[in-house]
Design goal:
- By secondary structure, the chain is α/β, with parallel strands linked by helices.
- The strands form 3 sheets. A 6-stranded mixed beta sheet has the order 1-5-4-9-3-10.
- Strand 7 and strand 8 form a beta hairpin.
- The radius of gyration is 15 Å and the shape is globular.
- The relative contact order is 0.23.
Length: about 190
């Protein structure tokens, strides 16, 4: 786990695993990064491990491996980063580019949050608590992102549920926002 992360000018983290997703595009306004969206994902739902999230974000998920995978076979999504249960961090899309993580969304009256946000997925679901290693890695990432993109304020870090209410519930009721705030302030 990397407690000090840094971001290169091209928007890629130094020293983390990179798995490039084809599911991205240029941002409509370059440099307009002012929102950080925290997500949770597990594939199949409620199960961890297996590399299925990574396969999903890179369009390599085999629909024969699980009945749920057949349902999502045609979805093309990505996040900028994934933090697994053990704290392992993988980046899929440069922060300078627009990942496909938010879907239909609105923040402070602005539609299409993908245009101006960074999406971080945590391996998890609404029913389970997140691992302490995920909070540690997430706090290091938040600190690096806020240093590189100062328009991301404490008030512009939110859950997927906040920008897509009624449609999304993640990161869910077990995500400890106070723990994240304490870790980012104490580092």
């Amino acid at each position: 786990m990397n407690n000090k992360l840094s971001i290169k000018p091209d928007g890629w983290l130094k020293g983390v695993e990179i798995m490039r997703s084809p599911n991205f595009e240029e941002r409509p306004v370059q440099g307009d990064i002012r929102l950080l969206v925290i997500h949770a994902i597990s594939l199949p739902p409620g199960r961890y491990g297996g590399g299925y999230i990574q396969q999903f974000f890179t369009n390599q998920l085999d629909p024969e491996n699980h009945e749920y995978f057949a349902e999502i076979r045609d979805l093309r999504v990505s996040a900028h980063c994934l933090i697994q249960r053990d704290g392992h961090l993988t980046q899929f899309v440069s922060f300078n580019d627009r990942a496909w993580h938010a879907g239909v969304s609105c923040w402070n009256g602005e539609q299409n949050c993908n245009d101006f946000s960074i999406g971080i997925e945590l391996e998890g679901c609404d029913e389970d608590a997140f691992d302490v290693r995920q909070y540690q890695q997430l706090s290091a990432l938040v600190i690096a992102l806020r240093k590189q993109y100062p328009a991301i304020s404490e008030q512009s870090i939110c859950g997927h549920s906040e920008i897509a209410p009624g449609r999304k519930t993640d990161p869910g009721p077990n995500f400890d926002w106070n723990r994240l705030a304490q870790l980012t302030h104490n580092s």
